[in-house]
Design a protein that fits this description.
Radius of gyration of chain B: 23 Å
Oligomer: heterodimer
Helix content of chain A: 25-40%
Largest sheet of chain A: 8 strands, mixed
Largest sheet of chain B: 2 strands, antiparallel
Number of strands of chain B: 2
Largest interface: A-B, 83 and 83 residues
Helix content of chain B: 40-55%
Number of helices of chain A: 14
Number of helices of chain B: 8
Shape of chain A: globular
Shape of chain B: globular
Distance between the termini of chain A: 7 Å
Distance between the termini of chain B: 59 Å
């Protein structure tokens, strides 16, 4: 069953096997897998229960509905925009559904530095399971917007020109079924074709007996004899400014799992007095920088998926013999923006902004995501009201990686035929008469950029590592089994659990961690993950009627789900 | 230690207001930091709404000289006042902490043109040109000059040097916030989209008159390798 805040008419007191705080890429798969295996599960989500009928395909409106802090969360110095979802289904409601398995290099690093003991041979079936359950497949060109194709052409051209084989990319595996390529997946799929947690693992959990509460703001851990045994929260509608309503108390016989974002998870742990020094520290955000391009003619830049093809040949960092940074350590993706999000991000004002927007049908963007290293001073702490606040700066090599990504992505876009680029802040790069002249223009413009986030217009959407798993309390918050070093019964899943940046879109990594945790939590019951036990529909698990013509309609089951009635 | 954002804004507001009071300009300290400047019961104050609209008129100006027009190509077009109403609605929906941040930013910006550098105006010449006026009292070109001067207040520190320990970096942060806040609530109005050639949400379009993007029927999908490399 799913209950929204408005449907909760009394204080709630429940007992279960496992209570999960958060319902996104961490909490959703965990809830689904545990419930399928027969455990009694309760999920508490701070965000609202929004469904396809709420998804207006309008970025600005949807920010207020599904984004944490209504889409205007920033670091304390205002230098970094922080993007994370706060809705049932979490970040999977607003992601592009990219589903990259964790790179082998990163798993090796986590095993080496954090003693996670992850066995690639054991992880492979977990990724395969996720791919099957979420219908992950590589995205065809016909579902991608034109920026994807142009960037791919640009990398081919640059590879031939430079002889550098790293100018290459990958067709992104994406979790969709029957995508029609409308191009608005990032603000909630209005057709229920994207296999977000909202329509995949959460309905599975619900049908398997899990109780799911939206609009529930968990503020307190219940601790008995040093062991986490439950949580307390309040119902709050609307989620940010609404008054505290009925109380919700859930006691768990086996485990309390905190699976919020990398911001809200340490917020809850710190607020409840946990003392591990690593809580909140080592935040990584995959700093995101935009390169805007003006193409000679209007192209299909808005229809079709962004991020369907990923320019990831430079994901690995290259160093010289002395260990100094040479290049790489980032990946880039084509984007898809409307005027409401283009205008603020492109950085111009007044008549200059209007001139840029007059090019809108010819204007598109690529964004670079930096594989930032975890630094202790990049951290989530509590403000005087007990709410999260973030300090984040580009440190060490991260600034160099940022500038390297701007240079190389600019080269790719010019090679693809773009005639003018805009990079942060208000810097214009013109195509030169020759490739060498164009390269010189790029290098000159990028050389003026400093590494300060406010110069780079940095945003962060892949927030990780603030309560990371590891084998030592000196470097991590939880053990390799996900259980907090300092408190038995308390587990962490979600982005906070991942030890460092994932060097790719982290959604699948987060989900795989949840499957690892699910197996741990099932062991005492003598159980393991079970196969999906009902017939999957053509479109998705909840038999939602949708189609290529965009016709929407929920079957009776989905209507009952939307109404919060038991299935 | 670098100032954090809130400490900087708080100090700047106090500093700017005190200087303004000394110069016998409008906006003495008590009024600036009192209820008149900060909204009660979750509403944006009239003063801060006026400042926001002034910001929007500048950063969304079509020609750099005047506020955005009410009509474009004979069709109604959003004004800065419309964006102000959207911002006020967003303000009401936000948490108290963020409402306070909005208040501080807008109050700081309102006072900054009549506050000497380095905290306020970017240069002595700017200060003279602003003529002791508050931000919302400046005409659009001067407001744009103010935003751009703060946005361009770059330090020349090389890569790797921390960028938040000088006022310039914080000026840039505030200018970035002004541009983002002004543009975001202005260009989310669907009436601003047709002149830009943006068709809006797919859901609202008349599909029969549009090129359907793609038909997924008849196209197979290639499953990824972890699934066994099969082609469905």
């Amino acid at each position: 069953m799913i209950r929204t805040g408005k449907q909760i008419k009394n204080d709630v007191s429940l007992t279960c096997d496992v209570v999960i705080v958060g319902s996104g890429a961490g909490g959703g798969p965990l809830a689904g897998e545990l419930a399928m295996a027969g455990l009694d599960v309760v999920v508490l989500e701070k965000g609202a229960f929004t469904t396809a009928r709420d998804f207006t395909q309008d970025w600005a409106t949807m920010f207020g509905k599904i984004e944490g802090r209504r889409g205007v969360g920033t670091s304390r110095d205002n230098g970094v925009n922080l993007s994370f979802a706060e809705t049932l289904g979490g970040t999977t409601v607003h992601y592009w559904a990219n589903s990259f398995a964790t790179p082998a290099e990163r798993i090796e690093r986590w095993n080496r530095e954090f003693g996670l003991g992850l066995d690639p041979a054991e992880l492979a079936p977990l990724f395969a399971r996720l791919e099957k359950n979420l219908s992950v497949h590589r995205t065809h060109d016909y579902l991608a917007n034109a920026t994807n194709r142009l960037m791919r052409l640009g990398t081919h051209a640059m590879r031939e020109r430079s002889g550098d084989a790293r100018y290459r990319g990958t067709c992104a595996p994406q979790a969709t079924k029957g995508c029609i390529g409308c191009g608005f997946r990032e603000v909630g799929c209005a057709y229920n074709h994207k296999q977000s947690q909202l329509i995949s693992y959460l309905p599975i959990a619900s049908r398997s007996g899990a109780k799911i509460f939206a609009d529930c703001d968990v503020r307190e851990l219940i601790v008995t004899n040093g062991r986490a045994v439950g949580v307390r929260g309040v119902v709050r509608t609307p989620r940010d400014s609404g008054p505290a309503g009925h109380k919700v108390e859930v006691r768990a016989r086996q485990a309390v799992v905190v699976a919020g974002s990398a911001l809200t998870t340490p917020e809850l742990l710190l607020r409840n007095g946990l003392s591990n020094a690593n809580i909140g520290r080592f935040l990584t955000i995959a700093p995101t920088l935009y390169v805007w391009g003006q193409f000679p003619e209007a192209r299909n830049f808005r229809k079709g998926s962004g991020e369907a093809w990923s320019f990831d040949g430079f994901a690995a960092t290259r160093r010289d013999a002395a260990g100094n940074y040479v290049d790489g350590g980032w990946y880039a993706n084509p984007d898809n923006r409307d005027p409401a999000t283009t205008a603020p991000l492109i950085g111009f004002a007044g008549d200059e902004l209007r001139e840029r927007l007059a090019e809108f049908p010819r204007l598109t963007a690529a964004f670079c995501q930096i594989d930032d290293d975890p630094h202790a001073s990049n951290a989530v702490t509590l403000d005087s009201d007990g709410n999260w606040q973030v300090d984040y700066e580009l440190q060490g090599e991260d600034g160099l990686k940022s500038l390297d990504s701007l240079r190389k992505v600019s080269r790719v876009l010019f090679a693809a035929g773009f005639e003018r680029l805009y990079i942060p802040w208000r810097r214009t790069i013109e195509r030169g008469p020759t490739d060498a002249a164009t390269d010189a223009n790029i290098d000159r413009a990028v050389a003026e950029v400093t590494s300060a986030p406010s110069d780079l217009s940095v945003s962060g959407a892949h927030l990780l590592s603030t309560a990371r798993w590891g084998d030592s309390a000196a470097t991590s918050v939880c053990g390799p089994d996900g259980q907090a070093h300092e408190m038995p019964g308390l587990y962490v899943a979600g982005g906070a659990a991942v030890p460092t940046g994932a060097s790719t879109d982290p959604s699948f990594t987060i989900m795989s961690f949840s499957l690892v945790l699910a197996r741990e939590l099932l062991k005492p019951h003598g159980k393991d993950l079970v196969e999906l036990r009902w017939k999957r529909s053509r479109m998705n698990h909840t038999s939602i009627v949708g189609g290529a013509k965009g016709a929407l309609g929920y079957d009776s089951e989905q209507r009952r789900l939307a109404a919060g009635k038991e299935l | 230690m670098p100032l954090n954002r809130r400490a900087f804004l708080t100090q700047s507001v106090s500093f700017g207001a005190a200087l303004a009071a000394l110069a016998a300009a409008p906006g003495p300290l008590a009024q600036l930091l009192g209820d008149a400047a900060f909204g009660a019961a979750g509403d944006l104050s009239a003063e801060n709404l006026r400042t926001y609209v002034a910001v929007c008129e500048a950063v969304c100006s079509f020609d750099g000289r005047s506020p955005p027009p009410g009509h474009v190509d004979g069709r109604p077009h959003p004004t800065a006042a419309d964006a102000g109403q959207r911002f006020a609605a967003e303000y009401r929906a936000q948490s108290p902490a963020l409402r306070q941040t909005f208040d501080l930013v807008l109050t700081l910006v309102e006072q900054a043109p009549r506050t000497p550098p380095p905290v306020g105006a970017a240069s002595a010449q700017d200060l003279a040109d602003y003529g002791g006026r508050a931000f919302s009292q400046l005409d659009v070109p001067l407001r744009l000059r103010f935003v751009r001067s703060w946005a361009a207040d770059f330090d020349t520190a090389p890569v790797g040097v921390e960028g938040f320990q000088d006022v310039g970096a914080l000026h840039r942060g505030v200018a970035s916030a002004l541009i983002q806040l002004g543009c975001f609530y202005y260009y989310q109005d669907p009436r601003s989209w047709p002149p830009l050639g943006y068709g809006g949400p797919w859901l609202h379009r008349r599909h029969e008159s549009e090129e359907l993007p793609f038909s997924h029927h008849g196209h197979g999908v290639q499953r990824v390798l972890y699934g066994g490399g099969v082609v469905a």
